[in-house]
Amino acid sequence: MNQKIFIKTFGCQMNEYDSNRIFDTVKKIGFEKTENYEDANCYLLNTCHIRDKAKEKVYHEIGRVKKIFRFKTKPLVIIAGCVAQAENQEMLKREPYIDLVIGPQAYHKINEMILSYSKKKEKNEETEFDSISKFEYLDEIKNESGKVSSFLTIQEGCDKFCHFCVVPFTRGPEYSRPIKQILDEVKSLVDHGTKEIILLGQNVNAYRHEKYKLSNLLSEIEKLSGVKRIRYTTSHPKDMTEDLIEIYKHSKKLMPLIHLPVQSGSNKILDLMNRKHTIEEYLDIFFKLKEINPNIEFSSDFIIGYPGETEEDFEETINLIKKIKFINSYSFIFSPRPGTIAAKLEFIEKKISVVRLEKIQNQLFQNQIIMNKSLENKTLNILVENFTEDKKKLFGRSEHMTPVILSGKEDYIGKIVPVKINKSNSRTLFGEIINNSDQKVA
To answer: Per the omega criterion (within 30 degrees of 0), is the bond before 127 cis?
Structure first.
Protein backbone atom coordinates (compact mmCIF):
# COMPACT_ATOMS: atom_id res chain seq x y z
CA MET A 1 0.00 0.00 0.00
CA ASN A 2 2.91 2.38 0.77
CA GLN A 3 0.77 4.81 2.72
CA LYS A 4 1.35 6.91 5.82
CA ILE A 5 -0.52 6.73 9.11
CA PHE A 6 -0.75 9.41 11.77
CA ILE A 7 -1.60 8.05 15.24
CA LYS A 8 -2.68 10.34 18.07
CA THR A 9 -2.99 8.80 21.53
CA PHE A 10 -5.08 10.05 24.43
CA GLY A 11 -5.06 8.69 27.97
CA CYS A 12 -3.20 6.00 29.82
CA GLN A 13 0.07 4.15 29.32
CA MET A 14 -1.87 1.14 28.07
CA ASN A 15 -3.14 3.26 25.19
CA GLU A 16 0.47 4.17 24.37
CA TYR A 17 1.33 0.48 24.29
CA ASP A 18 -1.73 -0.23 22.14
CA SER A 19 -0.81 2.52 19.68
CA ASN A 20 2.68 1.06 19.28
CA ARG A 21 1.23 -2.40 18.64
CA ILE A 22 -1.32 -1.01 16.19
CA PHE A 23 1.55 0.47 14.19
CA ASP A 24 3.47 -2.83 14.37
CA THR A 25 0.34 -4.39 12.84
CA VAL A 26 -0.41 -1.91 10.03
CA LYS A 27 3.24 -1.98 8.96
CA LYS A 28 2.43 -5.45 7.65
CA ILE A 29 0.11 -3.94 5.02
CA GLY A 30 2.53 -1.22 3.97
CA PHE A 31 1.91 1.73 6.30
CA GLU A 32 4.70 4.04 7.44
CA LYS A 33 4.34 6.30 10.46
CA THR A 34 4.25 10.06 10.03
CA GLU A 35 4.35 12.78 12.68
CA ASN A 36 2.57 15.27 10.40
CA TYR A 37 -1.19 15.39 9.93
CA GLU A 38 -0.85 16.75 6.42
CA ASP A 39 1.13 13.77 5.13
CA ALA A 40 -1.31 11.13 6.37
CA ASN A 41 -3.39 8.80 4.22
CA CYS A 42 -4.80 7.37 7.44
CA TYR A 43 -5.59 9.21 10.66
CA LEU A 44 -6.08 7.07 13.78
CA LEU A 45 -7.21 8.45 17.12
CA ASN A 46 -6.68 6.11 20.07
CA THR A 47 -9.13 7.33 22.69
CA CYS A 48 -9.58 7.25 26.46
CA HIS A 49 -12.92 7.26 28.31
CA ILE A 50 -11.70 7.83 31.87
CA ARG A 51 -11.83 11.61 32.13
CA ASP A 52 -14.68 14.06 31.72
CA LYS A 53 -15.92 14.99 28.24
CA ALA A 54 -13.83 12.24 26.59
CA LYS A 55 -16.39 11.74 23.85
CA GLU A 56 -16.61 15.44 22.98
CA LYS A 57 -12.80 15.64 22.75
CA VAL A 58 -12.96 13.02 20.01
CA TYR A 59 -15.43 15.03 17.93
CA HIS A 60 -13.43 18.20 18.53
CA GLU A 61 -10.32 16.44 17.23
CA ILE A 62 -12.18 15.17 14.17
CA GLY A 63 -13.25 18.76 13.53
CA ARG A 64 -9.61 19.80 13.43
CA VAL A 65 -8.79 17.04 10.97
CA LYS A 66 -11.67 18.08 8.71
CA LYS A 67 -10.30 21.63 8.56
CA ILE A 68 -6.78 20.44 7.79
CA PHE A 69 -7.97 18.25 4.92
CA ARG A 70 -10.64 20.64 3.62
CA PHE A 71 -8.78 21.14 0.34
CA LYS A 72 -6.92 17.84 0.31
CA THR A 73 -7.78 14.20 -0.21
CA LYS A 74 -9.64 12.93 2.84
CA PRO A 75 -7.64 10.38 4.87
CA LEU A 76 -9.06 7.10 6.16
CA VAL A 77 -10.29 8.07 9.64
CA ILE A 78 -10.23 5.41 12.36
CA ILE A 79 -11.39 5.85 15.97
CA ALA A 80 -9.88 3.28 18.32
CA GLY A 81 -9.78 2.75 22.08
CA CYS A 82 -12.26 3.04 24.91
CA VAL A 83 -14.51 5.78 23.50
CA ALA A 84 -14.81 3.67 20.36
CA GLN A 85 -15.81 0.71 22.51
CA ALA A 86 -18.40 2.70 24.44
CA GLU A 87 -19.94 4.57 21.51
CA ASN A 88 -19.38 2.13 18.56
CA GLN A 89 -22.18 2.55 15.96
CA GLU A 90 -23.24 5.89 17.43
CA MET A 91 -19.95 7.43 16.29
CA LEU A 92 -20.51 6.40 12.68
CA LYS A 93 -24.03 7.86 12.78
CA ARG A 94 -23.04 11.16 14.42
CA GLU A 95 -19.91 11.93 12.40
CA PRO A 96 -19.87 10.84 8.73
CA TYR A 97 -16.18 11.79 8.50
CA ILE A 98 -15.34 8.70 10.60
CA ASP A 99 -14.80 5.54 8.53
CA LEU A 100 -13.90 2.77 10.98
CA VAL A 101 -14.48 2.28 14.73
CA ILE A 102 -12.47 -0.38 16.56
CA GLY A 103 -12.47 -1.28 20.26
CA PRO A 104 -9.35 -2.12 22.30
CA GLN A 105 -9.96 -5.89 22.18
CA ALA A 106 -10.22 -6.02 18.38
CA TYR A 107 -6.91 -4.53 17.21
CA HIS A 108 -5.94 -7.85 15.64
CA LYS A 109 -8.68 -7.18 13.05
CA ILE A 110 -7.49 -3.73 12.01
CA ASN A 111 -5.62 -4.79 8.86
CA GLU A 112 -8.61 -6.79 7.68
CA MET A 113 -10.87 -3.79 8.31
CA ILE A 114 -8.58 -1.36 6.46
CA LEU A 115 -8.18 -3.63 3.44
CA SER A 116 -11.93 -4.27 3.30
CA TYR A 117 -12.67 -0.54 3.43
CA SER A 118 -10.16 0.21 0.66
CA LYS A 119 -12.08 -2.16 -1.62
CA LYS A 120 -15.73 -1.64 -0.65
CA LYS A 121 -15.73 1.84 0.99
CA GLU A 122 -18.15 0.46 3.60
CA LYS A 123 -18.01 1.97 7.09
CA ASN A 124 -17.64 -0.60 9.86
CA GLU A 125 -17.23 -1.03 13.61
CA GLU A 126 -15.66 -3.88 15.56
CA THR A 127 -16.08 -3.81 19.33
CA GLU A 128 -16.35 -7.42 20.48
CA PHE A 129 -14.36 -8.45 23.56
CA ASP A 130 -11.78 -10.95 22.30
CA SER A 131 -8.58 -10.53 24.30
CA ILE A 132 -7.34 -14.07 23.64
CA SER A 133 -7.43 -13.75 19.85
CA LYS A 134 -5.97 -10.25 20.04
CA PHE A 135 -2.87 -11.25 22.00
CA GLU A 136 -2.39 -14.50 20.08
CA TYR A 137 -2.31 -12.41 16.90
CA LEU A 138 0.02 -9.76 18.36
CA ASP A 139 2.32 -12.50 19.64
CA GLU A 140 3.15 -13.28 16.02
CA ILE A 141 4.18 -9.66 15.39
CA LYS A 142 7.44 -8.58 17.02
CA ASN A 143 7.31 -5.60 19.36
CA GLU A 144 10.07 -3.40 17.97
CA SER A 145 9.58 -0.40 20.26
CA GLY A 146 13.31 0.32 20.42
CA LYS A 147 12.80 2.59 23.43
CA VAL A 148 15.09 2.40 26.45
CA SER A 149 12.01 2.19 28.67
CA SER A 150 9.14 0.21 27.14
CA PHE A 151 5.56 -0.52 28.15
CA LEU A 152 4.25 -4.08 27.96
CA THR A 153 0.62 -4.99 28.62
CA ILE A 154 0.28 -8.23 30.59
CA GLN A 155 -3.31 -7.92 31.82
CA GLU A 156 -6.45 -6.19 30.59
CA GLY A 157 -9.93 -5.58 31.89
CA CYS A 158 -11.34 -5.33 35.38
CA ASP A 159 -13.69 -7.35 37.59
CA LYS A 160 -13.72 -4.87 40.51
CA PHE A 161 -16.62 -2.66 39.32
CA CYS A 162 -15.74 0.45 41.31
CA HIS A 163 -18.86 2.59 41.18
CA PHE A 164 -17.10 5.51 39.44
CA CYS A 165 -15.24 3.52 36.79
CA VAL A 166 -16.14 2.70 33.20
CA VAL A 167 -13.21 0.32 32.54
CA PRO A 168 -15.18 -2.96 32.99
CA PHE A 169 -17.50 -1.76 30.23
CA THR A 170 -14.81 -0.53 27.81
CA ARG A 171 -12.03 -3.08 28.42
CA GLY A 172 -14.11 -6.06 29.50
CA PRO A 173 -13.45 -8.70 32.17
CA GLU A 174 -9.98 -9.40 33.56
CA TYR A 175 -7.74 -11.31 31.18
CA SER A 176 -4.10 -12.27 31.79
CA ARG A 177 -1.73 -13.14 28.98
CA PRO A 178 0.21 -16.46 29.01
CA ILE A 179 3.59 -16.07 30.71
CA LYS A 180 5.55 -17.44 27.71
CA GLN A 181 3.89 -14.87 25.44
CA ILE A 182 4.98 -12.09 27.78
CA LEU A 183 8.55 -13.35 28.19
CA ASP A 184 8.93 -13.65 24.41
CA GLU A 185 7.84 -10.04 24.05
CA VAL A 186 10.27 -8.93 26.78
CA LYS A 187 13.11 -10.67 24.92
CA SER A 188 12.08 -8.98 21.66
CA LEU A 189 12.08 -5.58 23.36
CA VAL A 190 15.51 -6.22 24.89
CA ASP A 191 16.86 -7.26 21.50
CA HIS A 192 15.75 -3.86 20.18
CA GLY A 193 17.42 -1.84 22.94
CA THR A 194 15.01 -1.83 25.88
CA LYS A 195 16.60 -1.74 29.34
CA GLU A 196 13.52 -1.06 31.47
CA ILE A 197 10.24 -2.97 31.27
CA ILE A 198 7.04 -1.38 32.61
CA LEU A 199 4.33 -4.02 32.95
CA LEU A 200 0.83 -2.68 32.39
CA GLY A 201 -2.68 -3.69 33.34
CA GLN A 202 -5.94 -2.15 34.45
CA ASN A 203 -5.30 -4.24 37.57
CA VAL A 204 -1.78 -5.39 36.86
CA ASN A 205 -1.31 -7.15 40.20
CA ALA A 206 -4.45 -9.20 39.52
CA TYR A 207 -2.35 -11.04 36.91
CA ARG A 208 -3.18 -14.75 37.01
CA HIS A 209 -2.45 -17.29 34.30
CA GLU A 210 -2.67 -20.98 35.17
CA LYS A 211 -0.40 -21.40 38.21
CA TYR A 212 1.44 -18.10 37.66
CA LYS A 213 0.85 -14.82 39.46
CA LEU A 214 2.55 -11.44 39.06
CA SER A 215 5.20 -12.43 41.58
CA ASN A 216 6.17 -15.44 39.42
CA LEU A 217 6.30 -13.31 36.29
CA LEU A 218 8.51 -10.72 37.98
CA SER A 219 10.90 -13.47 39.08
CA GLU A 220 11.15 -14.80 35.52
CA ILE A 221 11.81 -11.36 34.02
CA GLU A 222 14.45 -10.76 36.70
CA LYS A 223 16.46 -13.67 35.25
CA LEU A 224 16.84 -11.98 31.85
CA SER A 225 20.26 -10.33 31.78
CA GLY A 226 19.27 -7.63 29.28
CA VAL A 227 16.60 -6.25 31.61
CA LYS A 228 18.05 -3.72 34.03
CA ARG A 229 14.88 -2.31 35.62
CA ILE A 230 11.31 -3.56 36.15
CA ARG A 231 8.18 -1.61 37.07
CA TYR A 232 4.46 -2.37 37.04
CA THR A 233 1.30 -0.26 37.08
CA THR A 234 -1.57 0.17 37.93
CA SER A 235 -2.21 -1.92 41.02
CA HIS A 236 -5.23 -2.47 43.25
CA PRO A 237 -4.76 -2.72 47.04
CA LYS A 238 -6.95 -5.86 47.12
CA ASP A 239 -4.42 -7.69 44.93
CA MET A 240 -1.29 -6.62 46.81
CA THR A 241 -0.78 -10.16 48.11
CA GLU A 242 1.89 -11.48 50.48
CA ASP A 243 3.82 -13.25 47.69
CA LEU A 244 4.04 -9.98 45.75
CA ILE A 245 5.20 -8.07 48.81
CA GLU A 246 7.83 -10.77 49.47
CA ILE A 247 9.38 -10.20 46.02
CA TYR A 248 10.75 -6.90 47.29
CA LYS A 249 13.00 -8.80 49.71
CA HIS A 250 14.89 -10.49 46.91
CA SER A 251 14.57 -8.54 43.67
CA LYS A 252 17.51 -6.45 42.48
CA LYS A 253 15.72 -5.05 39.44
CA LEU A 254 12.24 -4.19 40.74
CA MET A 255 12.17 -0.42 41.30
CA PRO A 256 11.22 0.97 44.75
CA LEU A 257 8.21 3.01 43.60
CA ILE A 258 4.75 1.51 44.02
CA HIS A 259 1.81 3.17 42.30
CA LEU A 260 -1.12 2.00 44.41
CA PRO A 261 -4.29 4.08 43.98
CA VAL A 262 -6.17 4.62 47.22
CA GLN A 263 -8.71 7.18 45.84
CA SER A 264 -9.80 8.43 49.30
CA GLY A 265 -8.59 8.45 52.89
CA SER A 266 -12.10 7.77 54.22
CA ASN A 267 -13.45 4.25 54.74
CA LYS A 268 -16.96 5.61 54.27
CA ILE A 269 -16.10 6.96 50.82
CA LEU A 270 -14.17 3.82 49.88
CA ASP A 271 -17.28 1.80 50.69
CA LEU A 272 -19.45 4.13 48.58
CA MET A 273 -16.93 3.71 45.76
CA ASN A 274 -17.05 -0.10 46.12
CA ARG A 275 -13.25 -0.15 46.37
CA LYS A 276 -13.19 -3.42 48.38
CA HIS A 277 -10.36 -2.29 50.67
CA THR A 278 -10.07 -0.20 53.83
CA ILE A 279 -7.54 2.42 54.89
CA GLU A 280 -6.32 0.02 57.58
CA GLU A 281 -5.58 -2.63 54.93
CA TYR A 282 -3.85 -0.04 52.76
CA LEU A 283 -1.64 1.09 55.66
CA ASP A 284 -0.79 -2.53 56.44
CA ILE A 285 0.59 -2.92 52.90
CA PHE A 286 2.51 0.35 53.27
CA PHE A 287 4.17 -0.58 56.56
CA LYS A 288 5.06 -4.12 55.41
CA LEU A 289 6.84 -2.78 52.34
CA LYS A 290 8.57 0.00 54.26
CA GLU A 291 9.87 -2.59 56.72
CA ILE A 292 11.29 -4.63 53.84
CA ASN A 293 12.90 -1.59 52.21
CA PRO A 294 12.68 1.92 53.74
CA ASN A 295 13.64 3.32 50.32
CA ILE A 296 10.28 2.25 48.83
CA GLU A 297 7.99 5.19 48.05
CA PHE A 298 4.31 5.28 47.13
CA SER A 299 2.38 7.22 44.53
CA SER A 300 -1.39 7.18 44.21
CA ASP A 301 -4.60 8.43 42.57
CA PHE A 302 -7.20 10.52 44.39
CA ILE A 303 -10.79 11.34 43.47
CA ILE A 304 -11.87 14.55 45.18
CA GLY A 305 -15.50 15.52 45.77
CA TYR A 306 -16.95 12.05 45.34
CA PRO A 307 -20.73 12.02 46.04
CA GLY A 308 -21.21 11.89 49.81
CA GLU A 309 -17.75 13.27 50.70
CA THR A 310 -18.02 15.47 53.80
CA GLU A 311 -15.40 17.85 55.15
CA GLU A 312 -14.47 15.15 57.68
CA ASP A 313 -13.97 12.59 54.89
CA PHE A 314 -11.80 15.08 53.02
CA GLU A 315 -9.65 15.76 56.10
CA GLU A 316 -9.08 12.00 56.43
CA THR A 317 -7.63 12.04 52.90
CA ILE A 318 -5.34 14.96 53.80
CA ASN A 319 -4.18 13.08 56.92
CA LEU A 320 -3.43 9.95 54.87
CA ILE A 321 -1.33 11.99 52.42
CA LYS A 322 0.63 13.51 55.29
CA LYS A 323 1.17 10.10 56.87
CA ILE A 324 2.35 8.24 53.75
CA LYS A 325 3.97 11.22 51.98
CA PHE A 326 2.97 10.08 48.49
CA ILE A 327 5.14 11.22 45.59
CA ASN A 328 4.20 11.71 41.91
CA SER A 329 0.48 11.29 42.57
CA TYR A 330 -2.57 12.23 40.51
CA SER A 331 -5.69 13.94 41.81
CA PHE A 332 -8.93 14.84 40.04
CA ILE A 333 -12.36 16.17 40.85
CA PHE A 334 -14.99 13.46 40.50
CA SER A 335 -16.55 13.44 37.04
CA PRO A 336 -19.46 11.08 36.34
CA ARG A 337 -19.01 8.43 33.67
CA PRO A 338 -22.19 7.42 31.81
CA GLY A 339 -23.47 4.00 32.83
CA THR A 340 -21.76 3.89 36.22
CA ILE A 341 -23.54 3.79 39.58
CA ALA A 342 -21.82 6.99 40.74
CA ALA A 343 -23.28 8.90 37.79
CA LYS A 344 -26.74 8.53 39.37
CA LEU A 345 -25.75 9.97 42.76
CA GLU A 346 -26.17 13.51 44.05
CA PHE A 347 -23.03 15.51 43.24
CA ILE A 348 -21.14 17.83 45.55
CA GLU A 349 -21.17 21.52 44.67
CA LYS A 350 -18.38 22.20 42.15
CA LYS A 351 -16.83 25.15 44.01
CA ILE A 352 -16.42 22.99 47.14
CA SER A 353 -14.63 20.30 45.12
CA VAL A 354 -12.37 22.90 43.50
CA VAL A 355 -11.25 24.22 46.89
CA ARG A 356 -10.63 20.69 48.16
CA LEU A 357 -8.65 19.73 45.05
CA GLU A 358 -6.40 22.77 45.47
CA LYS A 359 -5.67 21.77 49.08
CA ILE A 360 -4.92 18.18 48.08
CA GLN A 361 -2.63 19.19 45.25
CA ASN A 362 -0.76 21.70 47.42
CA GLN A 363 -0.06 18.93 49.93
CA LEU A 364 1.01 16.48 47.22
CA PHE A 365 3.28 19.06 45.59
CA GLN A 366 4.77 19.87 48.99
CA ASN A 367 5.61 16.18 49.45
CA GLN A 368 7.33 16.15 46.05
CA ILE A 369 9.31 19.33 46.79
CA ILE A 370 10.53 17.96 50.12
CA MET A 371 11.45 14.61 48.55
CA ASN A 372 13.32 16.18 45.64
CA LYS A 373 15.07 18.73 47.87
CA SER A 374 16.34 15.88 50.07
CA LEU A 375 18.12 14.41 47.04
CA GLU A 376 20.21 17.50 46.29
CA ASN A 377 23.97 16.85 46.67
CA LYS A 378 23.33 13.11 46.59
CA THR A 379 24.33 10.72 43.82
CA LEU A 380 21.61 8.57 42.23
CA ASN A 381 21.53 5.81 39.65
CA ILE A 382 19.83 7.27 36.58
CA LEU A 383 18.69 5.34 33.51
CA VAL A 384 19.31 7.69 30.56
CA GLU A 385 16.44 7.38 28.07
CA ASN A 386 16.99 10.01 25.37
CA PHE A 387 17.74 13.65 24.61
CA THR A 388 15.50 16.48 25.76
CA GLU A 389 13.31 17.99 23.07
CA ASP A 390 15.84 20.72 22.27
CA LYS A 391 18.62 18.07 22.00
CA LYS A 392 20.82 20.06 24.37
CA LYS A 393 20.54 17.83 27.44
CA LEU A 394 19.98 14.20 28.30
CA PHE A 395 16.80 12.94 29.94
CA GLY A 396 16.59 10.05 32.38
CA ARG A 397 14.71 8.80 35.41
CA SER A 398 15.64 7.91 38.96
CA GLU A 399 14.66 4.64 40.62
CA HIS A 400 11.57 6.50 41.90
CA MET A 401 10.61 7.49 38.33
CA THR A 402 11.49 11.15 38.91
CA PRO A 403 12.61 12.95 35.70
CA VAL A 404 16.27 13.97 35.66
CA ILE A 405 17.91 16.46 33.27
CA LEU A 406 21.69 16.15 32.85
CA SER A 407 24.53 16.98 30.50
CA GLY A 408 26.20 14.24 28.50
CA LYS A 409 26.82 12.57 25.18
CA GLU A 410 24.61 10.24 23.15
CA ASP A 411 26.77 7.31 24.31
CA TYR A 412 25.08 7.47 27.73
CA ILE A 413 21.61 6.74 26.32
CA GLY A 414 20.50 3.27 27.43
CA LYS A 415 22.94 3.18 30.34
CA ILE A 416 22.49 3.48 34.09
CA VAL A 417 24.91 6.15 35.28
CA PRO A 418 25.71 7.76 38.65
CA VAL A 419 24.44 11.35 38.66
CA LYS A 420 25.08 13.98 41.30
CA ILE A 421 21.90 16.00 41.85
CA ASN A 422 22.70 19.73 41.96
CA LYS A 423 19.22 21.25 42.15
CA SER A 424 15.54 20.36 41.95
CA ASN A 425 12.01 21.64 41.63
CA SER A 426 8.66 20.02 42.42
CA ARG A 427 8.80 17.72 39.37
CA THR A 428 12.39 17.41 38.14
CA LEU A 429 15.96 16.80 39.29
CA PHE A 430 18.99 18.40 37.62
CA GLY A 431 22.48 16.93 37.83
CA GLU A 432 25.76 15.90 36.32
CA ILE A 433 27.25 12.50 35.61
CA ILE A 434 29.93 11.34 38.04
CA ASN A 435 32.71 9.71 36.05
CA ASN A 436 34.35 8.07 39.05
CA SER A 437 33.14 4.44 38.84
CA ASP A 438 33.88 3.95 42.53
CA GLN A 439 31.40 6.66 43.50
CA LYS A 440 28.73 5.31 45.82
CA VAL A 441 25.11 5.91 44.87
CA ALA A 442 22.36 7.01 47.24
So the answer is: no
* Whether 227 contacts 267, CB under 8 Å: no
Query: Is the domain of 77 the same as that of 113?
Result: yes
Rg (CA), the chain: 22
CATH of the domain at 405: 2.40.50.140
Per the structure, the complete domain to which residue 429 belongs is given by: 379-433
The verdict on 139 and 43 lying in the same domain is no
pTM as predicted:
0.84
Per-block mean pLDDT, blocks of 10 residues, the chain (442 long): 87 86 92 91 88 76 90 93 85 92 90 93 84 71 82 94 90 92 95 96 95 97 97 97 97 97 98 98 98 97 98 98 94 90 95 97 95 97 94 95 95 96 96 70 50
For residue 74, give the CATH number of its domain. Answer: 3.40.50.12160
Find residue 303's DSSP bridge partners.
332
Q: Are residues 309 and 408 in the same domain?
A: no
d(CA 401, CA 381) in angstroms, rounded, equals 11
- Dist. CA 349–CA 366, nearest whole Å: 26
| Domain endpoint, select from 104, 129, 154 | 129
User: Is there a single domain that holds both residue 145 and residue 256?
Assistant: yes
Total domains in the chain come to 3
User: Does residue 401 sit within a domain?
Assistant: yes
Q: Which of 129, 158, 173 is the last residue of a domain?
A: 129
